[in-house]
Design a protein that fits this description.
The chain is of the alpha/beta class and about 170 residues long. The chain has helices at about 15-30, 70-80, 95-100, 105-120, 150-165, and strands at about 5-10, 35-40, 55-60, 65, 85-90, 130. The model has no long low-confidence stretch (mean pLDDT about 95). The chain binds flavin mononucleotide. Flavin mononucleotide binds near residues 10, 11, 91, 93 and 94.
């Protein structure tokens, strides 16, 4: 049985691609299969996380907000998630820019803002978290794609080590 699920909320698809890469790396390096759930898909917007020991949540940040499905998921599943290992990433162009510019103070502030503070509002702890950059679109498209795939893969390996050891 699969004991890990990755649930995600995207607006323009970058979070989907990042989620797929995390799953691919964990499969390749640890031979662990992970279920993938799109919270925007009507048929899967209320996933039952009860059977899983590990939950990875990925959320798009834009217009100074989490994609709302991410918050709805935390609200609905707060109690169930409290007993599980929770890994959280955001696709945040702002955090990706700060990292690329070498402004690690700002990067860390944005991680705290977009992950730690949000989780704290729901009274939830996480095992590991990461702001993973994103891909600007529309009128911001010239800012490009600032995801660092090396960092995405490293973080996936960290998750893989934790869930494979069961610690
Ligand atoms: C209209 C718009 C607003 C955005 N606002 C923010 C923002 O407030 N903070 C931020 O860190 N990134 C912002 N971004 C960049 C997004 O984080 C980036 O596009 C990310 O990849 C979105 O994830 P998604 O493609 O999964 O929806 C914005 C991008 C767009 C197109």
């Amino acid at each position: 049985m699969r004991n890990t699920v990755l649930v995600y909320a995207t607006r323009w698809g970058a979070t989907t691609e990042t989620a797929q890469e995390i799953i691919r790396v964990i499969k390749e390096k640890f031979n662990i299969d992970i279920d993938l759930v799109n919270l925007k898909d009507k048929s899967t917007k209320n996933p039952d996380v009860t059977p899983y020991d590990n939950v990875i949540l990925g959320v798009s940040v834009a217009k100074f907000r989490w994609a709302k499905e991410g918050k709805i998921f935390l609200k609905k599943n707060r109690q169930k998630l409290a007993g599980k290992k929770l890994f959280v990433f955001v696709s945040s162009g702002g955090a990706g820019d700060a990292y690329k510019e070498g402004d690690l103070v700002k990067y860390e502030q944005l991680q705290k803002k977009w992950i730690d503070s949000t989780l704290a509002k729901f009274n939830l702890n996480f095992t590991s978290r990461k702001a993973l950059g994103g891909r600007y679109v529309g009128s911001f498209a010239d800012r490009g794609d600032n995801r660092d795939w090396g960092i995405i893969r490293e973080w996936a390996e960290e998750i893989g080590r934790i869930i494979s050891s069961g610690n």
